[in-house]
Amino acid sequence: MIRKIFWILLLVTFSFAKGNSQPFIKTSDLFRKHKENPHSGHLNIIQNPSIDTLISRYILVNKNLYDNFGYFGMEGFRIQIYLSSNINAREESAKVKVEFMNKFRDMKSYALFAQPVWYKIRVGDFRSRTEAYKSYLIISKEFPNSDLVRDFIYFPDLNKK
Question: Could you tell me which of 152, 142, 73, 161 has the C-alpha nearest to residue 103?
Fold first, then answer.
């Protein structure tokens, strides 16, 4: 009986510790006043408290994405021009990547490996399917087995025309 109560208390303690370990960020923390500028104004934010919860969740999810992928980015689309698990897929994927780089010099290409033995070449960093489709139509003429796929992409340069 005492062991059972001990384990329940231990479980409850760790539950509270885990719940409190996640950072909670308020909207007012995001818009802090810089002390070096004496002429700055005062900002009052009147909003539903649940918005702070949503902002904290959003920041936590993006932090987890950085931890998993190792770079800052977002969910988007890429064009997959090569996918194979043949014995010589590694060499073929390298040839396809070089061929793509020679034909489309302004677009980035990424060589990927997925378990068990899938070699992939994906190109571009597109925020939406509509944005990717224009390039897909051009690329699919040169690489007929290409396909639009969801991927985690680098932040695209929005200043580039």
Answer: 142
C-alpha to C-alpha distance for 102 and 108, rounded to whole angstroms: 11
Question: What are all long-range contacts of 58-66, with beta carbons under 8 Å and residues at least 24 apart?
Answer: 59/23, 59/25, 60/22, 60/23, 65/152
Q: What is the pLDDT along the chain (161 residues), one digit of tens a residue?
A: 777 776 777 666 655 544 445 566 666 666 666 566 667 677 777 888 788 788 777 777 766 666 555 666 778 899 999 988 888 888 998 999 999 999 998 888 998 888 888 899 999 989 899 999 999 999 999 999 899 999 888 876 666 65
Residues pairing with 147 in the sheet: 80
DSSP states of 76-141 as a string?
EEEEEEEEE-STTHHHHHHHHHHHHHHH-TTS-EEEEEETTTEEEEEEEEESSHHHHHHHHHHHHH
Total-model pTM: 0.58
At 107, which amino acid appears?
A: M
Q: Three-class SS of residue 154? A: strand
